[in-house]
Amino acid sequence: MKTFNFYKIIALFVAATFVVSCVQDDEFDIPNTAVEAPNLEGDVITIDALYNALQQEIANNGNETLTYAESNLFIEGYVVSNDEAGNFFEEIIMQDKASNPTRGVRVLIDVSPLFTYVEFGRKAYVKLDGLTVGFSNGVLTLGIQDGTSAEKIPEALLGEYLIRDPEVATIEPKVLTFSDFNDDNVNQYIRLNNVQFEASQVLGDNPQTYAGGAEDQFDGERVLESCESGQTVVFSTSTFADYKSLLLPAGSGTLDGLLTKNFFGEEFNVTVNDPTTVALDNDERCDPEQVDCGLATATGSNVLFTDFFETQAQNSPITGNGWTNFIEEGTESWEAYSDTGTNASLGISARMGSFNSGDDSSIGWLVTPAIDFDAQEGETFSFQSSNSFSDGSEMQVLISLDWDGTAANIPSANWSELPAAFIVGDDDFFGDWFPSGNVSLDCIEGTGHIAFKYIGGGNADIDGTYEIDEIEIRSN
């Protein structure tokens, strides 16, 4: 052992002497890792020009993809995705500008991870020769041509197709509201102000994680809602993300992420590179107040208010019988509706929807006449509801004890949810009608109004329709 230690010391001394003899004046040869300005042999076009070329190919030739060959063209953009946390896999998202972008594109690359090569904010170029552009999952996508589809660029060709620029820019999120969501803003880095996760997902005894639930298969889908409009959007996280088991933040605030679409390309989704940009740290949530008397076991025989809408004029706004039909935003109102098809009405029903409305936002109220809850006991409320692919639109059932009866003052009154009332959901079959249950109002004092509030818009992801019928308020 002593002999081994002696020779070990001699060896270390020789090695140290060799290293010192190779270095003069304390100068070391440091590898040059700086990215140099590329010498592109061709022309650079915008991502928007790429998009327009694809749209022209679709319009002129009916082809859903466009393949480039010997074009000597490149697109340029800034990387706004980051796969370090595992929420992106073998793809990057690029947008055309570091601030106020107009178009973005997804590039498929058979490499993981990619953040060590092109980090967030890195300016880069993509060579188009040999690539195919099309819409995959509803978003503009580039990849290697494989028949009529785009596949991932092989790892061996990474440096040939994805070319780095020395510039690493500060990306300024594009501030959007839910009503601003459209195809032009997909694949862009955005900011949503004054948002929160749905109360049922973050409050109570079983708060949800980003994507760590037993029911989460490929993605965890949570509901993000706007405190300003009440609109909602699906917040998506990969089950391969390393933060999937973190609890969702329970507060409200600001979220920076990317606008994308779901697997089927049918609905807008929001996702993030990692949780550090989910700044929902305001403890003051924007949930409406609730009045919850529970469900009644029986209903009385005294009818305080009822409407089955049979006397209403079809396809005309609901009027009469004490109703207040008020448009807060947009052009759509609650109207009488009758249909005997797959989504049949119950005779004549009341409905509201924003399909093909052209409205950025549609908010409509249908409010009952005043009910004096001190004049009797055992009040109950019931109705039937159905929908036509409600998507991201929403219907709320609310009560106010301080609305003064003036239509213009409806939005400024204090409205509370009636959580005991069952409202049809987007997952429920559109051809069925669902009873609300006998909602007890027996714990309420004073005079109040009950309202059906529709929230949606002309955008395809929030343009659903709700129908209601057989409305009754009873007491003992």
How would you characterize the overall build of this protein?
With 476 residues, the chain is mostly beta strands. The strands form four sheets. Strands 1, 2, 3, 4, 5, 6, 7, 8, 9 and 10 form a ten-stranded mixed β-sheet that branches. Helices cover 9% and strands 36% of the residues. Residues 1-32 have low confidence and may be disordered. The protein has helices at 2-21, 47-61, 158-161, 199-202, and strands at residues 43-45, 65-67, 73-79, 91-95, 104-108, 122-127, 131-136, 139-146, 149-151, 162-168, 174-175, 188-197, 219-226, 232-238, 252-261, 268-271, 278-282, 289-290, 302-307, 324-329, 335-337, 349-353, 362-367, 371-372, 380-388, 394-400, 416-417, 434-435, 439-440, 447-456, 465-475. It contains four helices and 31 strands. It has three domains: 43-168, OB fold (Dihydrolipoamide Acetyltransferase, E2P); 174-282, Nucleic acid-binding proteins (OB fold (Dihydrolipoamide Acetyltransferase, E2P)); 289-475, Jelly Rolls. Residues 44-274 form the DUF5689 domain. This is DUF5689 domain-containing protein.
